[in-house]
Design a protein that fits this description.
Helix 2 packs antiparallel against helix 3. The protein is rod-shaped and about 115 Å long. The longest helix has 72 residues. It has one domain. By secondary structure, the chain is mostly helical.
């Protein structure tokens, strides 16, 4: 302890001020680094949350696509039979075409949504 007091008595005032400044600068830099590390961690968590949300959206759109394809496939498999058993007065190609166009349009929209 006496050695420290002896050193401080022999040291110049500039050296003592520099040591105090370095000590406070060290504390300031450590706090800034901790804040930076915290913000990097927050960014990482936010990025992961965004990725999870996007994956959930992608799954939803893929399910919508699959449902649209199944509807269209069912229409294609059953439409001729359903059309053939209708009353001849009610059978028109236009209604069959309109149903095909609408179901295929749903598939096209689902493809676009899933691909985005």
């Amino acid at each position: 302890m006496n050695e420290i007091f002896q050193f401080l008595q022999n040291a110049s005032i500039g050296f003592i001020i520099a040591a105090v400044v370095v000590y406070f600068a060290k504390g300031f830099i450590e706090k800034r680094l901790e804040a930076l590390a915290k913000s990097v961690e927050d960014i990482r968590k936010t990025s992961l949350d965004v990725k999870k949300e996007l994956r959930s959206e992608e799954r939803g759109e893929l399910v919508g696509y699959r449902v649209a394809v199944e509807k269209w496939e069912y229409f294609l498999q059953t439409s001729l039979f359903d059309f053939s058993i209708l009353d001849p007065a009610k059978t028109t190609i236009e209604t069959l075409y309109e149903q095909d166009k609408n179901t295929f349009f749903e598939v096209k929209i689902a493809v676009v949504r899933a691909s985005i």
